[in-house]
Design brief:
Elements (H helix, E strand, L loop, with lengths): L2 E6 L3 H12 L4 E7 L3 H11 L3 E3 L2 H5 L6 E4 L6 H10 L3 E5 L6 H14 L3 E4 L6 H10 L7 E11 L18 H17 L5 E8 L6 E9 L4 E7 L1 E12 L3 E4 L11 E6 L10 E4 L4 H15 L7 H20 L3 E2 L3
Parallel strand pairs: 1-2, 1-4, 2-3, 4-5, 5-6, 7-10
Antiparallel strand pairs: 7-11, 8-9, 8-15, 9-10, 11-12, 12-13, 13-14
Helix pairs in contact: 1-8, 4-5, 5-9, 6-7, 7-9
Length: 335
């Protein structure tokens, strides 16, 4: 059995990564795509071998043959169209960050319960084998007690027309929303608990008014997580988790390749890379895995990989980070 999916939007992440990945899935079938520009949706449908193209999101949601939708729309449209999709009886996989406020996540949870559908946030890292292995290792007696997580994620984007550089705060632009959310989510995943307070500092672009360089500390009951995110420096990413006995380092934690294996370093020393123990994670397509995991949850009527209850806390942490960047003080995580 395969779940029939519709794509609500013509974003680059959908065209370049998610659709090709899901089309290779065992449980997922892409049958339709919608754009506000029918010519764009027709072109993508032709290029990627999708049966149906629609010129509005409403048309796609009215297609009764579609079981679920993937939503890669701009951040500020996520909740609105997720709720509309649920009201149309569709299951929903929505890109991160799902919401820009805790109250919006709660509204979506209410819509989920009212309509009896499944909805989840598209953190593809949470189903990737390297992150499942990382959590297995950090939970082991061999690793000891997890005490610290450190992350770094950056890229270069000076494009004034890119929505990530949006002037308007309600559009959800800036580095913390776009990529800082990954070390927040994965540190929570590894600690398996929630931070109680956070502190952050940020530098803002004078033209875009969005955060372009941010540093943060998350205070967990069991330890601390720190990260730096930036949208205007050299592209780089890495995640490190340190326990009382050993540590792990994930070489390509977020933009995992689909053409060669990934690596986790696992050791109790700081020797050079050539001498460190490597755990090789076989080549895989993280968007294939994400799509199939969600489709299988629909088929088996089980929980989706990243439910909105998880989103609720991730959103609360991100909001607290922005408050702290403004206040210069520790801010409590409020759900």
């Amino acid at each position: 059995m395969k779940i029939k999916w519709g794509i609500l939007g013509n974003a680059g992440i959908a065209r370049n990564f998610v659709i090709p990945g899901m089309k290779a899935g065992k449980y997922s079938e892409i049958t339709a795509i919608a754009s506000r520009d029918i010519n764009k949706s027709k072109k993508t449908a032709k290029d990627l071998g999708i049966e149906k193209a629609y010129g509005s999101y409403e048309e796609l949601l009215g297609d009764k043959s579609i079981d679920a939708v993937y939503i890669p729309l701009p951040n500020h449209l996520h909740v609105e169209w997720s709720i509309k999709a649920m009201e149309a009886g569709k299951h929903v996989l929505c890109e991160k960050p799902f919401a820009l406020s805790v109250s919006d996540v709660k509204k979506a949870i209410e819509a989920r319960e009212e309509n009896g559908v499944k909805i989840g946030e598209a953190y593809m890292v949470r189903t990737h084998p390297q992150w499942l292995k990382a959590r297995e290792l950090t939970s082991s007696n061999d690793f000891g007690k997890l005490r610290a997580v450190q992350g770094f994620f950056s890229y270069t984007n000076f494009d004034s027309s890119n929505i990530r550089n949006s002037y308007e705060p309600e559009m959800g632009g800036g580095g913390i929303w776009d990529i800082g959310c990954y070390p927040v989510n994965t540190s929570r995943f590894l600690f398996q608990e929630e931070p109680t307070r956070v502190i952050a500092m940020a530098e803002y672009d004078p033209k875009f008014k969005t955060d372009i360089l941010a540093s943060a500390i998350l205070d967990f009951p069991s330890g601390q997580a720190t990260f730096i995110s930036s949208t205007q420096i050299s592209p780089y990413q890495r995640m490190l988790a340190v326990g009382t006995k050993k540590h792990i380092e994930i070489k390509i934690p977020f933009n995992s390749p689909s053409t060669f294996p990934t690596e986790i370093f696992y050791d109790n020393s700081n020797i050079e890379e050539e001498g460190r123990k490597k755990i090789i994670i076989d080549t895989c397509h993280q968007y294939t895995i994400q799509g199939d995991a969600f489709s299988k949850a629909i088929i088996d009527n089980t929980e989706v990989p990243v439910p909105l209850e998880d989103t609720l806390y991730n959103t609360a942490v991100l909001k607290a980070l922005y408050r702290s960047a403004g206040s210069g003080k520790w801010e409590n995580v409020l759900v």
